[in-house]
Amino acid sequence: MSFLGTTMEIQSLQTFLAVIDEGGVQAASKSLHTVQSNVTSRIKRLEQELGTELFYRSGRRLELSRSGRELAKHARELLQMHKHAHQAVQQSNSLTGELRIGTMETFASFRLPSALKALRSQHNGIKLRVETNTSEHLIEKLLQHKLDCVFIGGQFDHEDLIATQVLIEELVLVRAAADDNPDTPLMLFREGCAYRNRSLQWHSRLGRPTQEVIELGTLDGILGCVSVGLGMTLMPKWVVESSRFRSELVVEKLPEEIAMIPTMMICHRRDAELQAMQTLKTAVTCQQ
């Protein structure tokens, strides 16, 4: 594709994706901080270069054509390659650039801070962006090249991704000290969380797959509710031991096949591994 050679042409691809992601020219122009005419002209330029229409126009609505869908499949990868090439050059000279990290909340709260400190000590000019979410959502964003690497719980296999085990966590059953009710609800993160899936697997093995589940969005919220007897949960042992609610909680060991769960660092196969990513991987692995 000869149109990828200049900054303006890279901007045209960015504009094309913005129209898709934002749902139209007007919204794309706002997200790109430019005027609508610039967005329109860049789309037209792409169409002229490729000799085909990228969108079908119906009034103000735009629908991707077959050619547009084909370009969209490759555009994110092309832009990601451009971004990584730029970062690799920057890092080779001054150890600067941007690293976008996705992580589970438990990992972000307890494992990630010391790893980021080690990262900054070797790459003090790097710009860090950290997003917390469920494992499922993080993988989706990694596949879309919206993150550079993610940390998730549990084994994972995908032909476009490279997964490396960096830690093994031990999950324990966590209850309030005064709670001896076997029918206490499960307190879990929302759908897509690896620890949630392992908790439901454990409960199913006990023959209670339909027990009430209460969803919360934060680690502190879950352990706080468990501490006053509103539910029980499965959580990494060291997370419970580090919690401010520790004195109000009791933990019980679980069968090894339920308790032991790996933490994986995952990167996209088509992206070059940046120096900073290798430094981060080493810093996390050293915590085991």
Automatic annotation (TrEMBL):
<dbReference type="InterPro" id="IPR036390">
    <property type="entry name" value="WH_DNA-bd_sf"/>
</dbReference>
<feature type="domain" description="HTH lysR-type">
    <location>
        <begin position="8"/>
        <end position="65"/>
    </location>
</feature>
<keyword id="KW-0804">Transcription</keyword>
<keyword id="KW-0238">DNA-binding</keyword>
<comment type="similarity">
    <text>Belongs to the LysR transcriptional regulatory family.</text>
</comment>
<dbReference type="Pfam" id="PF00126">
    <property type="entry name" value="HTH_1"/>
</dbReference>
<protein>
    <submittedName>
        <fullName>LysR family transcriptional regulator</fullName>
    </submittedName>
</protein>
<keyword id="KW-0805">Transcription regulation</keyword>
<dbReference type="InterPro" id="IPR005119">
    <property type="entry name" value="LysR_subst-bd"/>
</dbReference>
<dbReference type="InterPro" id="IPR000847">
    <property type="entry name" value="LysR_HTH_N"/>
</dbReference>
<dbReference type="Pfam" id="PF03466">
    <property type="entry name" value="LysR_substrate"/>
</dbReference>
<dbReference type="InterPro" id="IPR036388">
    <property type="entry name" value="WH-like_DNA-bd_sf"/>
</dbReference>
